[in-house]
Amino acid sequence: MIRVRFAPSPTGYLHIGSARTALFNWIYARHYGGKFILRIEDTDKVRSEDRFLEEIITDLKWLGIDWDEEPMRQSLRFDVYREAAEGLVKAGKGYREGEAYIFRVEDGRVIEVDDMIHGKVTFNTNDIKDQVMIKSDGSPAYNFCCVVDDAHLKISHIIRGDDHLSNTPKQILFYEALGIAPPKFGHMPLIMGADGAKLSKRHGGVSVEEYKKEGFLPEALVNYLLLLGWSPGDNREIIPVNEAVKIFDIKGMTGVQAKFDLVKLRWMNGEYIAAKKSMELVPLIKKQMADSGKSIPADEAILKIIDLYKVRIKTLSEFIPMTDHFFSDTYSAEAKGVEKYLKSAEGKDIIREFILRLEKIKNFSHTAIEETCRGMAEEKGLKAGQVIHPTRVAISGKTTGAGLFEMMEALGKEKVLERMRKASAS
Q1: Which of 123, 222, 239, 405: disulfide with 366, CB 3.0–4.6 Å?
Q2: Over 70: is that where the pLDDT of 201 sits?
Q3: What is the pLDDT of residues 372-425, one digit of tens each?
Q4: What is the chain's mean pLDDT, rounded?
């Protein structure tokens, strides 16, 4: 049976690159009906923190990544690693250096790896120094405890980033010394910034937590991560994860470094937001408002506004500044818009005339409002925009947004007229 693992270190938040590694391992396991194992590499007692572990677990679940067995914690297995190291020393394959246990690397050997992504890769042991198994402080070295644990967990395939490629020959030496057949390896290209440099803060968020707070949907982030190094074919870009599981083939992964494009991710997230039912977005928007310290309106009120704006936002966090005029009278106003449309006598006269006509509408629907607006424009010899633009700024403080007439209906007749009167009198 195929058994893969994801092994995060709880020394920080879940990195976007690590999330991608977890995702591809999970998809590989699910595609073949195998097992996805979670192992916590918390051997660094100083830097490892439970709060980071909790966040990593939360973020994996948020992404829809589940695991099949109780997670293993390396911090509970120090005795196991020491016993394995002692066995290799007794067998003449290593030696002691004070409290440390060192593995002796044989010179002049060529190690060949048939990588699932890169193909054949060779290493020479002349380039590898003797390897620490147990450090002088009693903690295990990374490459050694990885092998001990992968053997114990019966891991069949290891899919990880290219930054681990140099660890592979060292780990193969440990497998051989322990008399264990090594798993198959596949090293994915690393995620780089759009400029080709190592992914960093200047390219956008680097942790899953940051994207979650910004209002990215998990299914959109998963979809985007899938496309970093793999393609479903036919130039397809929107692919639900359940479909990806069915068609995934690691042979479709390239060895070329993947570039993280925040603009494309935002576009994709916008597509997923627009495709959702408005009611599904209500709890997500409410959480954004709560996290921003905003008062939470009734679901019905939020639902109406989501209907208008879900096709306009790229992230859920954009909803708040874009729609603040619906939920409060103290909303931000664009200075240029105010200057352009509300400072002139002409603009104020147009608003006053529109007020007189709006007051006569009994059913304040967007269709009735639009008919009134276009009727006034035609009668006065104006373009519709000459009525629409100053009215939009008057009731929202903004020069862009959802359709004006739908906005006016959602705000209600009383609020619309109140704001228009205030704008025309200022």
Answers
A1: 405
A2: no
A3: 999 999 999 999 999 999 999 999 999 999 999 999 999 999 999 999 999 998
A4: 94
Residue 8: which residues within 8 A CB-CB, separation 6 or more? 14, 18, 22, 38, 40, 41, 56
Angle between helices 78-90 and 142-152 (to 10 degrees): 100
Residue where the block lists tokens 């006509």? 357
d(CA 111, CA 134): 24
Tens digit of each residue's pLDDT (9 = 90 or more) over 54-65: 999 999 999 999
What does the alpha-carbon distance between residue 381 and residue 196 come to, in Å, rounded to a whole number? 55
In this prediction, residue 333 carries a pLDDT of: 87
Whole-angstrom CA distances from 111 to 156, 185, 278 are: 19, 13, 56
Which residues fall within 8 angstroms of residue 261, CB to CB, at 6 or more apart?
Answer: 194
Residue 45 has pLDDT above 80, yes or no: yes
Tell me how far apart the alpha carbons of residues 223 and 261 are, in angstroms, rounded to a whole number: 13
Residue for token digits 């690393």?
A: 190
Show the tokens assigned to 409. Answer: 């209906």
The string of DSSP letters for 337-349 reads: HHHHHTSSHHHHH
- List, in sequence order, the alpha helices (H) in 9-118: 16-32, 50-62, 78-90
Phi-psi region of 269 (alpha: psi -120 to 50; beta: other; left: phi over 0): alpha
Q: What is the mean pLDDT of residues 235-257?
A: 89
Cβ atoms of 116 and 250 within 8 Å: the answer is: yes
Phi, psi torsion values for 129, nearest 5 degrees:
-85, 170
Q: Is the pLDDT of residue 202 over 70?
A: no
Catalytic residue among 201, 277, 360, 362: 201
- Helix/strand/coil percent split, the chain, to 5: 55, 15, 35
> Does the annotation count 259 as an active-site position?
no
Q: How far apart are CA 222 and CA 227, in angstroms?
A: 9
208/206 Cα distance (integer angstroms): 7
Nearest to 192 by CA among 258, 265, 261, 264: 258
